[in-house]
Amino acid sequence: MKKKCIAWLLIIYGIFLFFTCKHTDKQEEEAPIFLLDSTYVSVNIVASHLDVPWEITSGPDDEIWFTEQSGKVNKIDAKSGHIKTLLTLPNLYRERTAGLLGMVTHPNMSETPYVFIAYSARKSDQVHVSRVVRYTYETDTLVHPLTILEYPAWKGHFGARVAIAPDGKLIIATGDGAQNENAQNLASPNGKILRFNIDGSIPSDNPFPNNAVWAWGLRNPQGLVFSPKGILYNSDHGDATDDEVNIIQRGGNYGWPKIAGYVDSQEERLFAQDSILAPPLHAWTPTIAPAGLAYYASAEIPEWKNTLLLATLKGNSLYALPLNKEGTKADTVYHFFERTFGRIRAVYASPDGTVYMATSNRDWNPNGFAEENDDRILQIKKVDKSISTANLVLKAKIASNTKEMRSEGEILYTNYCASCHKPNGRGLTGTYPSLLHNKVVEGETAEFIRLILHGKNEMPSFSFLNDKDLAIVLSYVRKKFASKGKQISKDDIKKERVNH
Ligand code: HEC
């Protein structure tokens, strides 16, 4: 009797193993692996269908905590993937860029279980305010709100991020409220870096007595992070030009609205003469809409060690700015996952070397990248090199420093095709066919599309790309490498998908 039982158990266990193994094998086969420089990483979805995830950080017990602009503070159980909502804000004011934004957990939560959030609220029908509030974490909930800062919400440029300094002070980055004059006005909390004690009082060693202002002259900062050395970095949205990443110095003036980016016009030079001005670490024109910032300290992904990771919205990618040893210079910029996941709002580098980033494809200003399961939190994790032989490997890194503007088609081609068919389209004799004046590329549209959708032998299937991206990349290939053949539309792609 006993033996029979054990035999049955073994059989059931066997069936269980069969199905679970099969399942993971299949997943690994399907999910593309990305190559950074020399490190292979997987990009896994840890949360989907979110309402504009705005901040990612970690809580106690290695959990990932995140905010949604809709007013929720959530955490993800790393093991089960289960999401638990810790707080839903009442009276939230959400409009375009207003809502629940930045969040930081205290680095020593076991003794100081504090969580700080930045959001906008409806005080009455007419009055909207922005706030930074401290909550106390008690088993799976946030309680005892203490308002540290309340200031006018104005009408735009809400910022906002929060960080805890190595000396335990609370640092807040605020937007100018779309009221230019705020940023240079030391009596206004808008357009500033502010510094508080965690009980909400003003530290006695701030640059101006009884004033929370630590630095000023900012427009709409959406990135704020300390390196382990204690350097404070921030990102700031420029106007039509000059998005910036800055090193924030005590008492520094970052120039807005008098100076955008570097001091490079006569008017800016005049203003700079009698101001203490801190130049940006890096500035971008055309603009990239920079958002979250993370400092990568781990050795897990060697090419990112001592690098700032910057989430970009308009840039539709994760930028990497490798720093010099002192952390004071970042001359080169690399773009990762360009136009692969769409707009990126938040990035978090966890101490174990795993990186998390949040898409922002369903925010107030989407640009056509939204996937059915957006918005998502994606986990970038190193994988063993051997896995690369069994998977489709995509190059995650493109371009660098250059100001050259590349077309969407070229970017997609570089991301998805150039690893085999080579940037010049000539392929590799005997292995990867040349696309120059290729019969398939110049031939019947439907056949060309079918090949890309279904793949053939060593040629992978690209059915995971959406219709728009496929139309763009195939049109690019035709235009660039063929002497004849019409442009391919989204509908052409859709027709072939349906026909299949
Ligand atoms: C992993 C390598 C690889 C990648 C990436 C790849 N291809 Fe290919 N491609 C191949 C191979 C191998 C063939 C030949 C297949 C066969 O006929 O057996 C091929 C064939 C083709 C052909 C048909 C050429 C002919 O003469 O038969 C076209 C067109 C093509 N690829 C376009 C693309 C485009 C566009 C992309 C990007 C969206 C792409 N390929 C990405 C490996 C690749």
TrEMBL record:
Keyword terms: Heme, Iron, Metal-binding
Looking at the record, the residues that make up the Cytochrome c domain are: 404-481
Pfam families per the record?
Cytochrome_CBB3, GSDH
**What InterPro entries does UniProt report for this protein, alphabetically?**
6-blade_b-propeller_TolB-like (IPR011042), Cyt_c-like_dom (IPR009056), Cyt_c-like_dom_sf (IPR036909), Glc/Sorbosone_DH (IPR012938), Quinoprot_gluc/sorb_DH_b-prop (IPR011041)
Q: Which Gene3D superfamilies match?
A: Cytochrome c-like domain (1.10.760.10), TolB, C-terminal domain (2.120.10.30)
Has the keyword Iron been applied to this entry? Answer: yes
Question: Is the keyword Chloroplast in the record?
Answer: no
Which PANTHER family does this UniProt record tie to the protein? HEDGEHOG-INTERACTING PROTEIN, HIPL1 PROTEIN
| The protein's name in its UniProt record | PQQ-dependent sugar dehydrogenase
